[in-house]
Design a protein that fits this description.
mainly beta; 2 domains; five-stranded antiparallel sheet; 0% helix; disordered N terminus; binds calcium ion
Length: 154
């Protein structure tokens, strides 16, 4: 079951994440995931953003495939990563102008975008890839489930 979406893409720009290392701490920068390796992550529906812990360098391209369904409110029918067709998120949503309840992503603190079925994703800035369900910001708490996502760094 579950709708597979193949997305060639790079999403998402990033702003370098501020280091939280305390002064005097030896801090190792994250390494780029093995290129060509497929990384499996879960996008939990009950929080705005999920840090995939997949680190990409500026300009790097990657593909995203997403599977499964989540509930965007108690008892709601399962929602695939495609979201609710014909519904465009407004102000107060995680990513306004993107499809309601669709898979959205960003890198670091860059402008987020909808992860759709086509188009190339690339990291506009160096940092982690974040993914989420495009719900209204104040009603993530009643969501449940997770999409399974496979990210392959080109
Ligand atoms: Ca909700």
């Amino acid at each position: 079951m579950g709708t597979a979406r193949r997305c060639r893409a790079a999403v998402v720009s990033l702003v370098a994440i501020a280091s939280s290392a305390a002064a005097g701490t030896v801090y190792a920068a994250p390494s780029v995931p093995d290129q060509g390796a497929k990384h499996e992550v879960y996008v939990e529906a009950d929080r705005p953003w999920n840090n995939t812990k997949i680190w990409v360098e500026e300009g790097q391209t990657f593909t995203i495939e997403a599977f499964g369904t989540v509930e965007i409110s108690p008892g709601a029918a399962g929602t695939t990563p495609n979201g609710r067709e014909g519904c465009i998120a407004g102000e107060g949503w995680l990513v306004p102008e993107a499809t309601c309840y669709s898979l959205v992503g960003r890198t670091a603190d860059s402008e987020p975008t909808e992860i759709d079925d086509f188009g190339g994703y690339y990291a506009k800035e160096t940092g982690y890839i974040y993914l989420g369900v495009n719900d209204e910001n104040d009603v993530f708490f009643d969501n449940s489930g997770a999409w399974r996502v496979e990210i392959t760094v080109d």
